[in-house]
Amino acid sequence: MTSTVITGIGELTTHSPLGRLSDAALVLAEGRVAWVGRSADAPDADVRVDVGGRAVLPGWVDSHTHLVFAGDRTAEFEARMAGQPYTAGGIATTVAATRAADDDALAANLRRLADEALAQGTTTFETKTGYGLTVADELRAARIAGVFTDEVTFLGAHLVPPGTDADSYVALVAGEMLDAVAPHVRWADVFCERGAFDEDQSRTVLTAAARKGLGLRVHGNQLGEGPGVRLAVELGAASVDHCTYLSAADVDALASSATVATLLPACDLSTRQSLPPGRALLDAGATVALAGNCNPGSSYTTSMAFGVTTAVLQMRLTVEEAVYAATKAGAIALRRDDVGHLDVGARADLQVLDAPSVTHLAYRPGVPLTVAVWQRGERVVR
Ligand code: NIG
After folding, report:
1. Hey, what domains does the chain have and what are their CATH numbers?
2. Cβ < 6 A, ligand 1 pocket
């Protein structure tokens, strides 16, 4: 395998040490970071790339997406912009379109979105089932997702299918559906929210999934305060996602647990909610991740940079905190220590910005700054 030395890095974010190194270089070998140091001291390698003073940082780790779907919901979005509230009910529209699509169409759509994300610097992503909601359709979604990522989450408990009895559906999800899907996924998730699954129903699904050996994630506190955060912490979930409406007790619970608070600001903007209290969470000592939540209903974007920009401009995170949240903390939310940072030994997943500093992610909002991406040591975007 070819080794590469990247020199002339004007500003390097590795996360260890925290902060930014200037005039730096990196060596990539065997798909890993093999050396980090000053540009002048860089050793030789098979390939030498000088990035001309640009900033280099880890590839984004997007720990929350819903990419197995068909169709879009432009009409729902337009109605929302005209004043209609977002409700979980729109999920049923995508469920119908997804069930009607064949495997090739679902895989092609997922590939399109994964490529779009990669071109913008996302080198690791999680994605969920949840637009099938039958045993066969959830299993199919898990299999298709598994072609593209190791981080697949079972979200059979996304919505009670219209016309179905809720208790029977919960029994199906926690029983036959989980049995079928568990061998194909790493995680299980529940949409614990008014209009979706209540606390008891969520606990039933999550505890069944934990007994199968799956890691837990929770959609919680998206549309109002509720039991999601509390339940996620109680069950030791790796992450509770959304966290838009938090009580003081929720913030305290997150601060004293290993459950990551994953914030999805693009979703909150697209659904006209408040932005989550990222500053308060960090000040309290919680681990905060930023993710994109790409899905056709509440957040149809593959841009992690948009979340970083929003977190700095509107949620009062520093640039370093926001970049950490979208890389290293995303990896923590996936219980991974091989991605999201650029220490020696890390997976060689990185991006180059056409800017001298990560500050430009907030200073130049909306400008597509990622100009080159390496994944597992291979240059995949120029
Ligand atoms: O994370 N909140 C639940 N699930 C998705 C939205 C899905 C949809 O509206 O299609 C979310 O925002």
Report:
1. 4-58+341-381 (2.30.40.10), 60-333 (3.20.20.140)
2. 66, 90-91, 94, 191, 219, 222, 267, 293, 295, 297-299
